[in-house]
Amino acid sequence: MSNGKAMMGQLGGQPVLILPESTLRTRGRDAQRNNIAAAKAVADAIRTTLGPKGMDKMLVDSIGDIVITNDGVTILDEMEIEHPAAKMMVEVAKTQNEEVGDGTTTAVIITGELLKKAEELLDQEIHPTVITKGFKIAKEEALKILSESAKSISLEDVETLKKIVITAISGKSVERASPKLAGLIVDAVKTIAQKIGNKIVIDKDNVKRVKKHGGSSEETELVRGIIIDKEVVHPGMPKKFENAKIALVDAALEVKETETDAEIRITSPEQMQAFIGQEQKMLKEMVEKITASNANVLFCQKGIDDLAQHYLAKKGILTARRVKKSDIEALAKATGARIVSNLDDLTSGDLGFAKLVEEQKIAGESMIFVRECKDPKAVTILVRGSTEHVVDEVDRSVEDAIGALASAIELGKIVAGAGAPEEQVARKLKKIAEKYSGREQLAVLGFADAMEIVPRSLAENAGLDPIDTLVALRAAHEQGKINFGINVLSGKTVDAYEIGVIDPLKVKIQAITSAAEAAEMILRIDDVIAASKLEKGPPMPGMPPGEI
């Protein structure tokens, strides 16, 4: 570390200070070493969570709240990371999560390993620009290799889709329930998939997840409709309706106050009576507009006056109020109803349909289930788990699985899992590296070696000997068995497709792309200066290597 004096010019023998005295600055190899050490430390922290035999992390915050998870992006999100280069690793995981929903740990550990190989090359006096150029070449080739070995998949291939889900949730705490969960998730995603032109588009937001603890993860269920976390507003209303005709109203069933400050002077009890009578009449008319449409279930986004509730109860209309906007929109997609903002416009054509609407108590809380919609474009998975921490982790696993499945279907391509694609990329890149003369060749070879971190970590986490396992895996790939990966249960190398370990191509492509680009970005940095313009608080202290 040096202070601001490091950046000064000479003017007639007089030193000219450019940065303030207290500025923290790291330069050249020191800056690279620190950044690489921080990024590697992040990768090492989550490497043990990879694969079916990966361990979990317990994250405890300052007030004692805990999160127990195996999910890469959750771990990095919850950790208080200070170092700027380590924060870039968090970005890799977040991008991976947003784009494809799975493979966050893979992306981060590949980034860490690329930087480790880059450091070995930097120690051999190879310039960072040469290394980044080699990494770019290797990345492009790696993506080609993956695409060539991918297999096609369609929405109809239910068994393969289930295998993708089981692969995505293996190693998570829900593994016991995985066959049942896989069926649910495939069913949910198939229901909401839409064909636009030749493409299948899946909006993951159309699969809602509602978490409730107090049951086992095997009790997780798919509702072909929506669950609303509200109760029926009035005790006199029915709690269950079959063949429900559903009205969705984005308007308050209340008498509005005047827009301007108006003063109403009432001078006699008769006037008071007339005034109250008028309010009652207005509320009654509102309810009559709803009954005129033949609706027997009402979901209202705004408030409902107590008197209006009484009238609705008399008419036998099951009603919920102050329903979230997102829930109302989901109900519209699921039931086919149209959201009405003005009660005068409500007609029977605006109503949606569900075979069953009922209020149920789950884990001590009342919720309204809208089940068995005709052709739902939005569905809900009721996620169960024995305790809150368990249900949170089940929910994260379901989210990952939905992401993986959507990625597989949208791109329509899959690759073998179990470390097979990474080993294949490593082997082919080593052959490609021979084409290049000069120092780029070393960077391409470094990239190839870095890819083997995935099978190596899978083996280490399963308690297998990583060297023996990798040697066996390389030998299988040399014989042309390109879909061979590691069976972590038996410790043998096997065809990943045969044991049902399948990954979406999109997940692998995204992981390698973001890992290579993040590694290139970190390698290009040769000067770290505390910049006051970016600061919100006091200047950030320089961190010793390896600390997060």
Number of beta-strand segments: 23
Shape: elongated
- Beta fraction: 15-25%
The top-level CATH class of one domain is Mainly Alpha
First-to-last CA distance: 18 Å
**Largest sheet composition:** 7 strands, mixed
Considering DSSP H and I runs of 4 or more, what fraction of the residues is helical? 40-55%
Mean pLDDT comes to: 79
What CATH architecture of one domain would you give? Orthogonal Bundle
Q: Uncertain runs with pLDDT below 50, 5 residues or more?
A: 1-6, 543-548
Helical segment count = 16
State the secondary-structure class. alpha+beta
CATH superfamily of one domain: GroEL-like equatorial domain
Regarding quaternary structure, what we see is: single chain
Report Rg: 30 Å
CATH third-level topology of one domain: GROEL, domain 1
Give short descriptive properties of this protein.
alpha+beta; GROEL, domain 1; seven-stranded mixed beta sheet; 16 helices; 23 strands; disordered N terminus; disordered C terminus
Question: Any overview of this molecule?
Answer:
The chain has about 550 residues and is of the alpha+beta class. Among the domains are: about 30-150 and about 415-525, GROEL, domain 1 (Orthogonal Bundle), CATH 1.10.560.10; about 225-255 and about 265-375, GroEL (3-Layer(bba) Sandwich), CATH 3.50.7.10. The chain has helices spanning about 30-45, 70-80, 85-100, 105-125, 130-150, 160-170, 180-190, 270-290, 305-315, 325-335, 390-410, 420-435, 440-450, 455-460, 465-480, 505-525, and strands at about 10, 15, 25, 55-60, 65-70, 150, 195, 200, 205-215, 220-225, 225-230, 240-250, 295-300, 320, 340, 350-360, 365-375, 380-385, 415, 485, 495, 500-505, 525-530. The longest helix is centred in the middle third of the chain and has 24 residues, at about 270-290. The chain starts with 7 loop residues before the first strand and ends in a 19-residue tail after the last strand.
